[in-house]
Design brief:
The complex is a heterodimer of chains A (349) and B (104).
Chain A: E1 3-7, E2 13-17, H1 18-36, H2 43-53, H3 77-82, H4 89-98, E3 105-107, H5 114-117, H6 121-134, E4 139-143, H7 160-163, H8 169-196, E5 201-207, H9 212-228, E6 233-238, E7 251-252, E8 255-256, H10 262-272, E9 276-279, H11 289-306, E10 311-313, H12 330-342
Parallel strand pairs in A: 3-4, 4-5, 5-6, 6-9, 9-10
Antiparallel strand pairs in A: 1-2, 7-8
Helix pairs in contact in A: 1-2, 1-11, 2-12, 4-6, 6-8, 8-9, 9-10, 10-11, 11-12
Chain B: H1 2-9, H2 18-28, H3 32-43, H4 53-63, H5 77-88, H6 93-102
Classes of the chains: A alpha/beta (349), B mainly alpha (104).
Amino acid sequence: MGEFFTRMGDGSGIYMSAEDIRWDLEEGTRDAADRGKIPELTKEELDQLFEIITMPGNVVGVERGNEVVTTSDSGGCKITYHANIAIDRSTAVLIHEKVLGADSLDIGHIDYSYKAVKPVMHNEAAVMELAQLNSVMPVLYGSMPNLGLYTKPDGPVENWAELLPQGKIAEARAAQEEAVEHAVRDIVFVAGGMYEAGADGINLDTCGASGDADVLAALKAIEIIKQKYPDLGVEMGMAGEFVLGMHGQLEYHGVRLAGLYPHKQVKLAEKAGANIFGLVVNTNSNMSFPWNIARTVTFVKACTEAANIPVHVNVGMGVGAIPMTEVPPVDAVSRADKAIVEIGKADGL
Amino acid sequence: MEVTHEVAVGMGGIRTAGDLVLRMQLAKGMKINEAKKYVAEKLGVSPIDLSDCYVMKEIREDLNIGRTIPVTGIARGMEAKIRIAKVLGIKINSVERFMAKSGI
């Protein structure tokens, strides 16, 4: 059999033999199963993955009827801040709705952190109000818990990243616990303001970027948001596949957060009251696309099987088997999407 | 890349019924097939029709619930969402606030 064109995790093109692709598929699923203590993909599923990877055509797609919906993180920032096109974010909402075929969009501040939004919440709420008047699709407000922003000199608490190398473990833990309380207050404050502005939902994105305390802040905030505003939709999106134990001892409802993989993360998101869970699997840029997609789908399948709420898989640069490059190739992106939806059974992206 | 996602696996937002299906996920935490089934029943079509822009263009036009090319006179933005809330039998936050603020 001849060679097939595919990609490395950094996006560069490579040719692989059928034998090498199958080898990487097996290694990828084995790696995920080993790390997450979850089942490997079956032989039939690996065959299906092989078929998707080697399909002719640049862009591939799901079979009719298997389409899913999409949410975003910093969606309102892509055209405005990222592509540097001088338009207002509420206009970006309409472009996504009427031109790009999005199912929803989240508006976010350029800093995309709840702490940064709090002092300008009234201005952010005005953008949401205007977007809501003109849009048909759901519009959410999104930001990160971003616990690191609460450390000195910019924030009120000691910097655990400085304390830990000094061996001040107890002090580092105390600082993180204090930061959680500040973050929860800010997230709930912004959620309340956006609820008043008519938001369809609040997106807590990149949860865990600062480790397990960051995840705890998100879970606690979601719990309060759902108590205060039961009608407000909540999406909880993760920062990585694995919760880093920067604190190491934090628990939520008796479950230690450090070390959790997606199929266990989603159960805590459900418990807190989230309506949608945003799963992340990191792309390894040194490994092939077949290796990365087998690994991703293994995690996704375990998570969707465990979940009672919809799971939207993050498929941006460097996650969900999407190559880690600024302009991800459509051949790899469309193949990742198809595999995640048809084999992983994702409810959305 | 967003365009690639939509082309490869996306429902397509208001081109079809993607916005309606997502509303059910966000409001009720419904998984994709459950949300499609709910919306399909409300619209009187089969779930597979929800992703068909030809079928959905007719339905969106008949129900006046928002279109990608909003020709003169049809419901836009909030006007369309007021109708969507009725069609789906759900409360939409911005609609509730609009009603309260405008004294309707």
